[in-house]
């Protein structure tokens, strides 16, 4: 039984580029938990190269970097979130939660207009 | 001068299908204003076929249709929004507005972490 579900996606755009978005925040959370780009990439089913590029893109878009990496060893040393990285996670998840909470009744009405599907 | 901007996107999903989303709501608004699928498609830079498919997909996903079309003539007679179609526009735009309003301070903080780009 398929029920309608709300999907809310927040992005901070800088022109055509996504500076902060759902994929980058999920990667920050994985980095916070694993302290390693390769482990974070693995936990998200993403290549090391893709994760590295996302981190690089995000750091370049920020006034101050979200992730610092120690150099040395294969795939570098460990990676750590900075205070900015932690702040991005906190703010982003709070914006999501509050957006849904602020709209509970309207969202329920919107969902109710959609069929429940047998498939 | 590029400044960071927030992009918020709301979708009602039914499994893998978008029942209600930004493209469909923009199409409903254009239909409300033009009373015609071909004029609405044109105003959105979309083919008639694509607009027709979006309307059909949306109507099928709803308990009760958002758009009714009179038959006859090339590309059919005119199209009109039902009460459900108008209600979708109202609810969807209100959810968007309230989501942004509920989060103004956090959103400002999030935007402030991103660089202003010279490009």
Largest interface comes to: A-B, 44 and 44 residues
Oligomer: homodimer
The proportion of residues in beta strands of chain A is: 15-25%
- The class by helix and strand makeup of chain A works out as alpha+beta
Number of helices of chain A: 5
Q: What number is the mean pLDDT of chain A?
A: 92
CATH topology annotation of chain A: Arc Repressor Mutant, subunit A
Architecture of chain A, CATH level 2?
Answer: Orthogonal Bundle
Tell me the helix content of chain A.
Answer: 40-55%
* Gap from first CA to last CA of chain A: 6 Å
Largest sheet of chain A: 2 strands, antiparallel
CATH H-level superfamily title of chain A: Winged helix-like DNA-binding domain superfamily/Winged helix DNA-binding domain
Rg of chain A computed from alpha carbons, rounded to a whole number of angstroms: 18 Å
By CATH reckoning, the class of chain A would read Mainly Alpha
